[in-house]
Amino acid sequence: MKSYYVKYFFHSPKYPSQPRKPFPFLPPSHVNPNPNSLNQDQQEERKKKNKETIFFSSLKLCKGSIMASSLLLDLSSSSYSTTSRLLLPFHGNKTLTLNRRLFSKAVPCGRRSPAFSPVTMAMAADTSAKIIDGKLIAKQIREEVAGEVARMKNEIGIVPGLAVILVGSRKDSQTYVRNKKKACEAAGIISYEVDLPEDSTEEEMLKHISDFNTDPSVHGILVQLPLPRHMNEENILNSISIEKDVDGFHPLNIGRLAMQGRDPLFIPCTPKGCMELLHRYGVEIKGKRAVVIGRSNIVGMPAALLLQRENATISMIHSYTRNPEEITRQADIVISAVGVANLVRGSWLKPGAVVIDVGINPVDDAEDPRGYRLVGDVCYEEACKVASAVTPVPGGVGPMTIAMLLSNTLSSAKRIHRVEW
After folding, report:
1. 288 shares its domain with 254
2. CATH number for 239
3. pLDDT digit string (tens) for 65-98?
4. What digits encode the pLDDT tens for the residues 155-194?
C-alpha cells in the first residue's frame, strides 16, 4: 500500500534548512481498496477528499513550529524578517508553500500591520469596541466632588485647599497647572499657587513646602514635575507631609500600596483614574490576566500594584522584556504607559481585551493646524477592531488625572477634619 509523506522545516539565519524525519500518512482511499469500482464522478470526489485529508492532517505535525493561522496569511506580501515554510507533496510534483511572519516592520497606525493576521482580523471582524469616555467619567467625578465640597462648607464651614508649586517656565507644566487651577475653582476648592523661577534653590522650594505642611487651610500639596536638574526630586517629594501628599508619590504611600492589609492615604492620580474607568465601566478584574506596559513610579508600577490588590494576575512589560507581543496577547486587561506612539498594535491584543491607553505622544500631521496631533501608545484604529473596550487619546485617561487630584484633595480635607460621610 502506498504511503504519502509530509516534510516540514524551519528557515532562519541561525539554523540551516534541514528536513526533519518524514511522517507517513495513509490516504483515505485505503478504505476502499478498489477505487476503480467507482464511477468517474465518485473517483474525482475521492481524489479531492484524499488531498484535503492529507492537507489538514499535516497541521497536527506543526505544533510548536507553525501556527495553524499561517494558512490564512496574505502570501503576496514580503515584509517579514523570518519565514517558516510548510511543504506538502501531493500527487505529481505539486507543492503548496505557506509563509508565516514571525516579526513585522512598523507601519503607520491605521494601515494593516504585516503581523496583523487574517485569523485575528476574522475573529474581530464583527467586534466594535466600546469607547471608554474619560471626559464623561471625569465630569461626573468633578460634579460629585463639587457636591461634597459644598456640603462641607455648609455643614462645618471648611473648604478644601490645594497648593501647587511650579518651578520654571515649561509651557506644558504651565498648561497643566492652569488646568488644575480651573478645575479647583469649578469644584469649589481653594487653589494656592507658587511660581518659582528656574534658578530657584532647593532650599527655597523646601521652605514653601514646609509652610504649606503647617498651614491648616491647605489639605493637599502638589509639586509640578519635572523639576530643574539642580533640584533633588526625591528630597523634595519626601518633604511633603504624607497627610497632604495628594499626588500619592510619598514612599510611605507607595509602600502601603504594595503591602497586603495596608491602605495608602493617597493613590497616585493617573493609576487611580485608570482603575476608576475600569470600575465605572463594569470591567471585571478579579481573576483576570493584566499586562502593564511601562514601569514608572508615577503610572506603571502603581497601576500594577492596584490591579494586584484587586486579585488580577499581573505581568509588566519594560525595555528588557522579551517577546512583549506574546505576553500582551495573553492579557484580558492592558494598561500602556510607556510614551511610545502606536507601540501596541492590534496584533498585540487578545480579542475582547480591555485597553487603557495612558500615553500622550505628538506625531507629525501636516493636516493639523498645529503641525502635529496627539496619539497614544496604542494604535487606536487597530485596537478598536480587536478590543472590547478602549480609551481614546485624547479624551481618555488624561481628564481622569485632574479629577482624581480633586478627589484626593477632598479626601484629605475629610480625613483631617474627621468628616465621616
Report:
1. no
2. 3.40.50.10860
3. 333 333 223 323 333 332 232 223 333 333 333 3
4. 999 999 999 999 999 888 898 899 999 999 999 999 999 9
246 to 190, 210, 243: CA distances (angstroms) = 14, 15, 8
Measure the CA–CA gap between 258 and 96, rounded to whole angstroms: 55
Domain of residue 55: give its range. Answer: 4-103
User: 378 in a domain, yes or no?
Assistant: yes
Measured distance CA(144)–CA(134) in Å, rounded? 15
Which residues does 8 contact at the CB level (< 8 Å), separation at least 6?
Answer: 19, 20, 58, 61, 62, 65, 66, 85, 86, 87
Residues known to be catalytic: 180, 224, 247
Backbone angles phi, psi at 31, to 5 degrees: -65, -35
**Chain position carrying cell 534658578:** 199
Count of structural domains within the chain: 3
Please give the Cα distance from 122 to 120 (Å, whole number).
5
Q: What is the pTM of this model?
A: 0.71
- Residue 34 in any domain: the answer is yes
Q: What angle do CA 378, 77, 5 make, to 5 degrees?
A: 115
Identify whether residues 227 and 291 lie together within a single domain: no
In 3D space, the residue among 248, 253, 250 whose CA is nearest the CA of residue 234 turns out to be: 250
The answer to whether residue 145 is domain-embedded is no
Long-range contacts of range 171-180, CB-CB < 8 Å, 24 or more positions apart? 173/224, 173/225, 173/226, 176/224, 177/224, 179/402, 180/222, 180/402, 180/405
CA atoms within 13 A on the CB side of 65: 17
Grid look-up 485647599 returns 161
Low-confidence ranges of the chain (pLDDT < 70): 1-43, 45-108, 110-127
Q: Is residue 79 part of a domain?
A: yes
